[in-house]
Amino acid sequence: MLEVVRPGDRLYPAVRDVYTATGRPAAVARPSSTAEVVEALRLARDTGGPLSVRSGGHGISSVATNVDGTVIDLGRLNTVERTGGDLVRVGPGARWGDVAAALHPWGLAISSGDSGDVGVGGLATTGGIGLMGRAHGLTIDHLVAAELVTADGTTRRVDAEHDPELFWAVRGAGANIGIVTSFDFRADRVPVVGHATLQYRIDDVTRFLRAWGETVESAPREISAFLYLMGGGFALATIVYAGDDPERAGRAFGPFTAVAPVLGRQAQLVPYAGVVAATHAPHRGQQGATTHTGFAVHLDEPVATGLAELATSGTVEMLQIRSTGGAINDVSADATAYAHRHQNFSVTAVSSTVFDQAWERVRPMMEGLYLSFETSFSTELLEAAFPPATLSRLRDIKRQVDPDDVFNQNFPVTAAVRS
Ligand SMILES: Cc1cc2nc3c(=O)[nH]c(=O)nc-3n(C[C@H](O)[C@H](O)[C@H](O)COP(=O)(O)OP(=O)(O)OC[C@H]3O[C@@H](n4cnc5c(N)ncnc54)[C@H](O)[C@@H]3O)c2cc1C
């Protein structure tokens, strides 16, 4: 029977909030099968009010909870099974750290994000910019099929042959078209990876960012590198070499030690699961923040200067610069609803205060936007997330599959039509 948790129930405090926000939903439905997801959707539609879909509850824009509406919490759909060879079937409620741990004994891994607590459902319906991205592509590039419940309660298996338009839309704008209840991925054979962490002291942020950008872009594809810049003087880097040869890994890490004075360093061969372990810390809205984001093609002089000004302005607490490029850019821009296939960096600024004006000076230098790293929403941002041809195709699909705009919480493609 479908479990529905309401205010006053013993379990309510544990299911009302997400990682980035507190919530006060009228009902949290916790389906344990696809049939129960259909039932939960019917309940939500009959009740009316806001509808939130939640997988891991780590969505940065906090739309996986609400006030006085219904949450469909897919946390119990969290199995990871091997279906043959390199194919695995994963539930949306699994966390990426648990997926990595389950895949490791089979010698397999799927590039996900940098946090093992992030849920499969939110990340695998928007992109998945991960620590093996330059070697193996986005998470969605590994998707071969998905089970999807659409607004009318129909369950469909979508893949390249069945409902190919829906399969295209799931890979970048999944939240707009339905609830994914299961993902079939082709995993990569990755027994272990080289994992390096570096701490830098920075004297000149512009020069540092230029050197970082050039080092990332000239690194072999096995390298993916994420940078976390705190204020102006200090940065942490996580660098993964997607391979098991320690000498090659060491050679590939080498140039990163010359980017700036290194205060601390560590490098080892570990299972990918060791890079993205899940903590399963309870959600209490503990990480609320404002973030703005965009893609950069290169960290050239104007971009590096703009980002350095932002980082040292005192308005932003952290600048995250994740490598994209490599295998991610081998896929054509129209192959998936995620269309950003020529940029080399995803840039995200994080602050506990509003910093819209400071970000406005950087935004014109960015090309496109990854919707999962943005806490604001506007027609302009929607158009940055989905270029014109992508947005138009998504709207056609949306009209057919969700004419009542039931799934309207997360970068709704209907927004510009309404405004
Ligand atoms: C600490 C942290 C680090 C991160 N690092 C990265 C990173 O390195 N790379 C990266 O790509 N992303 C990263 N992200 C962003 C992350 O991918 C997104 O926030 C993602 O949406 C979280 O997935 P979730 O299932 O936990 O989210 P939830 O909060 O459960 O869901 C977010 C939204 O996604 C949609 N959604 C969720 N599940 C489904 C489903 N099954 N079907 C349809 N729609 C669904 C819903 O609209 C929902 O509101 C990070 C986020 C955090 C908090």
Automatic annotation (TrEMBL):
| One of the record's GO molecular function terms | FAD binding
Keyword terms, alphabetized: FAD, Flavoprotein, Oxidoreductase
All copies of domain FAD-binding PCMH-type, residue ranges = 21-190
Which Pfam families does the record associate with it? FAD_binding_4
UniProt superkingdom: Bacteria
The cofactor required is: FAD
Q: What PANTHER family does the record point to?
A: BINDING OXIDOREDUCTASE, PUTATIVE (AFU_ORTHOLOGUE AFUA_1G17690)-RELATED, FAD-BINDING PCMH-TYPE DOMAIN-CONTAINING PROTEIN
UniProt family annotation: Belongs to the oxygen-dependent FAD-linked oxidoreductase family.
Q: What is this protein called?
A: FAD/FMN-containing dehydrogenase
Species assigned in the record: Paractinoplanes atraurantiacus
